Task: inverse folding
């Protein structure tokens, strides 16, 4: 007969909450939680009391009121009779526009500069070093203001394009760089343009099909087929043919200087200097960071990989494209996400050049005219949060696709 | 449980401390007046070469400090942009906003501000280069217009072009310095703001004569100091400090003769009431007897302040116009000190 040795059970004592490692962790967490809840409650209560003291309430109804102000550059139709909500939407789209343009351009610049900085050519390598160091180490705001000042001070005013004695002329006769923006031609969709779009989409599809066929063929037989030229031909020829056969359905509206009144270009589209300044400065600044990320990613791929590729007879270009970059991407993509997020949030520096982004419409004029600081700032924060989360989510999906498959 | 009760008590205690005291007490306890001013509008508020703030609105800040604190120099000038000014006032960052702000219905009611007085009757105009060849604002169809964001002028502009059925393109700018730079670079064809502001900006150009202020005045812009809604005692002090300046001009009290007039009761009972040699008007406002004497000593009466900062002898060269005393055909009319 054995008697199980019961450990002596002692009653729970409060001091165990601090002295006993079994309970200590729990105690700390409960105290921290209480402190946090107390802090949040304090802030919330403080807010309510102070809002009441100021005689203000918390209400999003102002979004439905007439805005009453005009916006220079809009992607959707907007007049000063529209609501504050519509003005906020215009601002949102403007923010997204400059963020998208900036991200794409920054990636192109960054990848080029990053690869070229590793070039064996002394001059190219040093030039890229100068670019990266110059842009990385000067505040973004200064670049935005500088580009904007150059754009508006170094370009002629519209009046100089007018009349017989015009001192300025349009580039190629169609583009006018002026102190008030860049006027470019804009396509006008005419009769049969839908058919042309269908043809274009079909030829893109055909080009993709050709690429995958060529790849399968090479896998099977080892013989490469020309991809680039054939794909280009598939892309361009049918579209051009359709364009001519349909009787040129797409025409271009070229900006022209009007004869009377204040000198001004009619037709085409005016890309404001503020947009260009913001776009360029953001792209060049973020591009410098991306260049460093790309360089780091490439250097992270072991030298044996490229030596092995060379030993197999791959040329340097293909080695980079088929061997190095796919492996480097695994190192590049995670920090790249942060750069995209930074760029998107940095678009709010638009305020420096008067570009009508969301901060300037909802967080600027609307907030000022309605006095709804808290509501506007909350909405503004929510917008940037959502956009950042979407970008980060999409990039994480991409990251999972290119990540090393572990089976 | 006990912890949370204690936290709750702490929170309540903190709140009681944070509850707003009267602005006058705050100012007295601090020893300086926080005055929100324009970051740079020559004639209204701008630092001079030695860094001292000068201008029409600055002199009002000095007068208020002289009334409330006894020393016109005890002012902390806080430059505020058109967009940030009302938020700064509502948040208590400044005690009074003397930043050529227009008194409007929605600012008075919805924004919870009070405009105790109007110190400059203004209207919105347009500044255009002579080379533009425009004689009237109605010829501005298709113009690119520089405009300060967060101002009433932004809304007036939209209304004016809508009513006249002409189009324009706005170029938003943050302050007068940026507006000047953009306008001179040709980024906009015309610059619009209050006519006084246009005169002030034009005075800083190298060749002011190449630019004209178009004849149309498209709005009413009663500019004045603003305070937070709800503190009527403080609003009274700001209001009557300003009216003391106007009344002083009306009664012929100047910076030069105020000390002499306040030394002994004069024949005119209103002068005596204003300068504290008769009755106790200062204590009624929560101030001392000598407050109005110091207000006038700080920078002279309303007319002196106007002439020194904006008048025809300055580079800005504005006529009194609507801002003359009511006895001289203007709108400046102080309620009686009685």
Result:
């Amino acid at each position: 007969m054995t008697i199980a040795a019961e450990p002596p059970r002692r009653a729970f004592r409060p001091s165990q909450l601090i002295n006993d490692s079994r309970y200590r962790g729990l105690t700390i967490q409960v105290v921290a939680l209480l402190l946090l809840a107390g802090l949040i409650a304090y802030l919330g209560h403080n807010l309510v009391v102070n809002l009441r003291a100021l005689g203000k309430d918390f209400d999003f109804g102002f979004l439905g009121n007439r805005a009453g102000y005009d916006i220079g550059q809009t992607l959707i139709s907007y007049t000063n009779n529209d609501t504050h909500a519509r003005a906020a939407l215009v601002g949102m789209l403007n923010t997204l526009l400059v963020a998208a343009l900036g991200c794409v351009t920054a990636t192109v610049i960054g990848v080029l500069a990053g690869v070229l900085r590793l070039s064996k050519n002394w001059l190219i390598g040093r030039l890229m070093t100068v670019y990266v160091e110059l842009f990385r180490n000067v505040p973004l705001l200064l670049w935005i203001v500088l580009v904007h000042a150059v754009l508006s001070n170094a370009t002629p005013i519209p009046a100089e394009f007018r009349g017989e004695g015009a001192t300025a002329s349009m580039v190629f006769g169609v583009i006018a760089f002026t102190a008030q923006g860049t006027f470019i031609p804009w396509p006008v969709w005419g009769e049969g343009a839908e058919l042309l779009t269908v043809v274009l989409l079909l030829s893109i599809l055909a080009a993709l099909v050709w690429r995958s066929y060529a790849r399968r063929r090479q896998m099977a037989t080892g013989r490469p087929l020309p991809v680039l030229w054939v794909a280009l031909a598939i892309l361009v020829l049918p579209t051009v043919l359709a364009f001519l056969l349909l009787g040129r359905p797409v025409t271009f509206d070229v900006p022209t200087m009007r004869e009377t009144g204040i000198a001004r270009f009619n037709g085409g589209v005016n890309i404001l200097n503020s947009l260009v300044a913001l776009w360029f400065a953001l792209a060049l600044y973020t591009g410098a960071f991306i260049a460093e990320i790309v360089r780091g990613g490439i250097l992270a791929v072991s030298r044996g990989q490229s030596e092995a590729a060379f030993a197999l007879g791959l040329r340097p270009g293909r080695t980079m494209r088929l061997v190095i970059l796919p492996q480097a991407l695994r190192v590049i993509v995670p920090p790249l996400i942060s750069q995209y997020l930074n760029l998107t949030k940095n678009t709010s520096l638009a305020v420096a050049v008067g570009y009508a982004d969301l901060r300037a419409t909802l967080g600027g004029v609307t907030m000022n005219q309605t006095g709804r600081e808290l509501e506007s700032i909350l909405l503004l924060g929510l917008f940037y949060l959502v956009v950042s989360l979407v970008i980060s989510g999409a990039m994480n999906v991409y990251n999972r696709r290119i990540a090393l498959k572990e089976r | 449980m006990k912890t949370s009760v204690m936290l709750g008590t702490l929170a309540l205690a903190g709140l009681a401390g944070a509850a707003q005291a009267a602005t006058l007490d705050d100012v007295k306890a601090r020893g300086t007046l926080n005055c929100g001013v324009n970051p740079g509008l020559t004639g209204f508020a701008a630092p001079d070469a030695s860094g001292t703030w000068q201008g029409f609105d600055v002199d009002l800040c000095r007068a208020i400090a002289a009334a409330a604190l006894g020393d016109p120099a005890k002012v902390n000038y806080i430059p505020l942009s058109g967009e940030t000014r009302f938020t700064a006032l509502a948040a208590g960052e400044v005690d009074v906003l003397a930043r050529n702000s227009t008194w409007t219905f929605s600012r008075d009611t919805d924004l919870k501000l009070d405009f105790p007085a109007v110190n400059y009757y203004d209207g919105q105009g347009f500044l255009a280069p002579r080379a533009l060849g425009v004689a009237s604002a109605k010829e501005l169809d298709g113009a690119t217009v520089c405009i300060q964001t967060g101002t009433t002028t932004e809304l007036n502009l939209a209304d004016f072009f809508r009513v006249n059925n002409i189009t324009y393109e706005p170029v938003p700018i943050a302050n007068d310095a940026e507006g000047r730079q953009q306008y001179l670079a040709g980024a906009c064809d015309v610059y619009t703001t209050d006519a006084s502001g246009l005169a002030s900006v034009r005075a800083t150009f190298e060749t002011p004569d190449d630019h004209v202020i178009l004849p149309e005045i498209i709005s009413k812009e009663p500019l004045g100091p603003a305070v937070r809604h709800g503190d009527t005692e403080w609003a009274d002090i700001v209001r009557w400090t300003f009216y003391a300046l106007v009344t002083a001009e009306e009664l012929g009290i100047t910076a030069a003769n105020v000390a002499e007039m306040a030394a002994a009761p004069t024949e005119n009972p209103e002068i005596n009431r204003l300068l504290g040699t008769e009755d106790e008007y200062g204590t009624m406002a929560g101030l001392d007897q000598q407050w109005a004497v110091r207000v006038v000593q700080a920078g002279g009466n309303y007319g002196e302040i106007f002439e020194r900062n904006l008048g025809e002898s300055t580079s800005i060269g504005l006529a009194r116009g609507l801002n003359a005393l009511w006895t001289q055909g203007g709108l400046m009319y102080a309620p009686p000190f009685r």
Observations:
- The first strand of chain B starts at residue 33 and ends at 37.
- The two ends of chain B are 61 Å apart (CA to CA).
- The CA atoms of residues 146 and 191 of chain B lie 5 Å apart.
